[in-house]
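4.2 Preliminary Data

To establish feasibility before requesting continued support, the project team ran the inverse folding procedure on a target of 155 residues. The structure was first converted into the token representation described in Section 3, and no sequence information of any kind was made available to the design step. The complete token record follows.
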């Protein structure tokens, strides 16, 4: 995958303690730039996550968003899910992952994704078998006139 185009690619300033305190050491809320630096995301990506409701209710002071240490973990969950092929719209269960029912919903989401991947792997394996059979069949031909029509594929 090409992580350099993802708005949350880790950068050299990821968890850079000299400039940004780690969340556990903080007493005051973070601004969007601080959260972006800690998570390797762009502020635009964080606003998108907020627009999808994935960060819950983000506190504001005037025009500024204020994030809590828990938001770092939420963004990390979102980033992990996106890297595993989930779409933002499917990630609503992450909003309540810290509750038993929310954790169960995330588990169900993960199991559904795993089943979809297993189905896709089976389809790809059947396609590979069909390609191998077709390759073998074509290798016995001397030319187009000696080749018979291929069998219909069952994939």
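Position-by-position output of the design step:
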């Amino acid at each position: 995958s090409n992580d350099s185009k993802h708005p949350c690619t880790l950068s050299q300033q990821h968890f850079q303690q000299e400039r940004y305190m780690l969340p556990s050491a903080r007493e005051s809320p973070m601004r969007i730039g601080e959260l972006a630096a800690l998570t390797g995301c762009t502020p635009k990506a964080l606003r998108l996550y907020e627009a999808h409701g994935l960060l819950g209710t983000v506190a504001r002071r005037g025009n500024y968003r204020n994030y809590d240490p828990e938001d770092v973990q939420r963004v990390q969950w979102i980033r992990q899910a996106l890297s595993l092929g989930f779409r933002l719209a499917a990630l609503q269960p992450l909003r309540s992952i810290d509750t038993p029912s929310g954790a169960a919903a995330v588990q169900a989401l993960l199991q559904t994704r795993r089943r979809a991947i297993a189905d896709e792997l089976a389809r790809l394996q059947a396609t590979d078998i069909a390609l191998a059979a077709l390759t073998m069949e074509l290798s016995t031909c001397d030319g187009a006139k000696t080749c018979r029509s291929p069998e219909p594929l069952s994939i």
